[in-house]
Amino acid sequence: LFRLDPAVASLFRNFILADHIMRHYNVCPQSCPEIPATHAHPLWETLDYEIDLCLQQLPRLIGEKERQQRLEDKIKRSEEERRIRANRRRQRQSTSSGSTDFAEILDGINMLKFSGPQRIKLEIAGSFHPWSSHNRIDGYPDGSSDESSSESSSDSDGAEEFSHSQSKTTGYVPSSFFMNQLCAFEVWMQHAGAAVTQFTSTLGSDGAPVSLSTHRPQFLELPEQLAIVLQLLLSQKYRLNALMLLYRFINLGPWA
User: Fold this and answer.
1) What is each CA distance from 234 to 132, 164, 226, in whole angstroms?
2) Does 33 sit behind a cis peptide bond, omega within 30 degrees of 0 on the bond before it?
3) Cα-based torsion angle of the residue sequence 165, 168, 173, 176 in order, rounded to the nearest 10 degrees
4) Mean pLDDT across 216-222
5) Which pTM value belongs to this model?
6) pLDDT per position as a tens digit, 130-158
7) Which residue, among 60, 53, 52, has the nearest Cα to 171 in the 3D structure?
8) Distance between CA 22 and CA 66 in Å, rounded?
9) Measured between alpha carbons, how far is 195 from 130 in angstroms, rounded to an integer?
């Protein structure tokens, strides 16, 4: 009734969850037909623990996101400053080339007008032209220093800081609830298999080996993880492991 129809199955799951949560507020949900109380099942403790692990990651994830945003903003500002400096250099170079061309034209006109000592004097004076490459510092006519090294170092520092932060960022750590349940069921299988083997090797009052009936032996408790393992048959990721464990469980005897 509670599993065949998808809509009813969804209501059934939500009812079980509501029964677990609302009892903390002194509210007891009711169903018709009545469902046995499941709010005190031991698996709820495991679920609460997994939820706490997920919520515990929130401060770290928020901090990582804010830190990454600051680094991205820093890199954007650095790139914007680099573009501005590149535009300034292009403007200086265009101004410098235009002034130099004009000076060369004037020198050519003067050389056509004068000759001899006057020409030599003008050529010497022209070599010390304020826009001449001999008077430039680091190749700039206005005496400005090369900013490419500083900007490249700042960009590299920002990139290194960003890559270092990315290497430390772990992101969201997925829950290992289902894998833990499979491991716990496997541990139970190891102890149960040893107990069943020891039990069947004993002799009864008639001297014949004791055989397990269709009822569960009293010295064995049902594993709490059995329902989870059955649910994992629907998961492609855990299906193979679940089938192997269920095969070992069924081999424990007819009762299984």
Assistant:
1) 81, 40, 14
2) yes
3) 170
4) 75
5) 0.54
6) 444 444 444 444 444 444 444 455 555 55
7) 60
8) 36
9) 100
